[in-house]
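Today's session is about reading a structure prediction critically. Students often jump straight to the picture, but the first step is always the sequence itself: look for stretches that repeat, for charged clusters, for runs of hydrophobic residues. Only then move on to the predicted structure, which in these notes is written as discrete structure tokens rather than atom positions. Here is the chain we will use throughout the hour.
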Amino acid sequence: MNAERGFRLHPGAASDITSIWEFIAKDNPLAAKRVREDAF
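Below is the predicted structure for this chain, in token form.
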């Protein structure tokens, strides 16, 4: 998912992260944005 940072995510892991982001974003879009920024 982010090869320029020195790692690649398995497609299943990328899907899990997206699901987590969507769950958080339902209640707090700003927190979801921070989670995504911190992860990548």
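Discussion point for the tutorial: The helical segments are 11-27, 29-39.
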